[in-house]
UniProtKB/TrEMBL annotation:
Residue span, Alcohol dehydrogenase-like N-terminal domain: 24-146
Organism of derivation: Nocardioides bruguierae
Keyword Heme: no
Pfam families listed in its UniProt record: ADH_N, ADH_zinc_N
Cofactor: Zn(2+)
PANTHER family: GALACTITOL 1-PHOSPHATE 5-DEHYDROGENASE, SORBITOL DEHYDROGENASE
Designated name of the protein: 2,3-butanediol dehydrogenase
PROSITE patterns listed in its UniProt record: ADH_ZINC
Length: 358
């Protein structure tokens, strides 16, 4: 089968690889669609980060570069291994793409398996990836999705789960006002979750296309352009001088951090969602004098079932966030290059590894 293989920074190759074997306790999935994530872009431009460098195998997967990329995937079950009795061939599914030690408790009551030692992600740390035609995944990490949800939209459930967990981490509740700085895929999807939960969302974004997406999809009540508007003043005006209750940093840009610290109300919560490739700075005196909480958030933990329910119930429509569909051969030229050099022109670009969805 064909797959996109990450060798090193700036080096991704489309190659023929062996199809994975379906073994007891696993599920074979024909990948329908796989999204290109900001983490994939960081690997391409700055990595390896999550990808184990060649010759340095990951302690759980045992793999090192080259590895198959892709962790935002949807597909159709083509086989189930022994002991798997609650999924069937033909069922639509998404993957919660974790690589976690077998002894870690990952049951429905767990709130921290995503923080366990040596955690990594399928499609980064090994285990195959969604940018291959097929993948085999342990049953624990496979989530069924209604056939009423189109498979291209289902591929966005993984990044939507990031937004769901970020909303949980922030403590945001119905009636709160949230400022989301950055309306890339994660910022928009976090806004979608917040709006579905009854939070009033203000989005700040430089890109006209992404501002338009935030407005036309209804995930934000107010959309601001930081190039022409004083975001802090606007937020204060919209909140009667109080400031936002919660803030979400979704850009990995220093100016976003500064804006959020100033725009949050006293005792507000700043949630850092983006992956940072370099240190950031905080004005600690402002944090102290306003008694702000600063919270990190990474990926998701038992978030997929609730996230899937938001989509299946119609509370979140994922279709508008898909702005491109490509095949494997265009991964770098049409996908990565667009998102790295012209990211203001796209939101979420999906890849059909087999080409059947194009």
């Amino acid at each position: 089968m064909r797959a996109a293989r990450y060798y090193d920074r700036g080096d991704i190759r489309i190659e023929e690889v062996d199809e994975p074997a379906v073994t007891p306790g696993t599920v074979g999935i024909d990948v329908a669609w796989c999204g290109i994530c900001g983490t994939d872009l960081h690997e391409y431009t700055e990595g390896p980060i999550f990808v184990p460098p060649h010759g340095h195998p990951h302690p759980i997967s045992g793999e090192s570069a080259p590895v198959t990329l892709g962790h935002e995937m949807s597909g159709v079950v083509y086989a189930v291994g022994g002991g798997v009795s609650d999924l069937e061939v033909g069922q639509h599914v998404v993957v919660e793409p974790y690589i976690i030690r077998d002894e870690v408790e990952t049951g429905p009551a767990s709130t921290d398996y995503h923080l366990s030692d040596d955690m990594n992600f399928i499609g980064l740390g090994g285990g195959g990836g969604g940018l291959g035609e097929k993948i085999v995944v342990k049953r624990r990490w496979v989530h069924p999705v209604s056939n009423d949800v189109p498979l291209d939209q289902a591929a966005l459930i993984e990044p939507l789960s990031v937004g769901y967990h970020a909303a949980q981490r922030s403590g945001a509740k119905a009636g709160d006002v949230a400022l989301v700085v950055g309306a890339g895929p994660i910022g928009l999807l976090t806004s979608a979750v917040l709006t579905a939960l009854g939070v009033e969302v203000i989005v700040s974004e430089m890109s006209p296309l992404r501002r338009q997406k935030a407005a036309e999809t209804g995930v934000a009540k107010h959309v601001l352009d930081p190039a022409s508007q004083d975001v802090v003043a606007e937020v204060r005006a919209l909140t009667g001088g109080k400031g936002a209750d919660v803030g979400f940093e979704c850009t990995s840009v220093q100016a976003a951090v500064d804006t959020l610290v100033d725009a949050l109300r006293p005792t507000g919560v700043l949630t850092v969602v983006s992956i940072w490739g370099r240190p950031a700075q905080f004005d600690m005196q402002k944090i102290v004098l306003k008694e702000l909480d600063v919270r990190g958030t990474i990926a998701y933990v038992n978030s997929h079932p609730a996230t899937i329910e938001l989509v299946e119930s119609g509370k979140i429509d994922l279709a508008p966030f898909i702005t491109g569909r490509i095949g494997l051969d265009g991964l770098v030229t049409e996908g990565f290059d667009t998102l790295i050099h012209r990211n203001e022109t796209a939101v979420k670009i999906l890849v059909s590894p087999s080409g059947r969805g194009l």
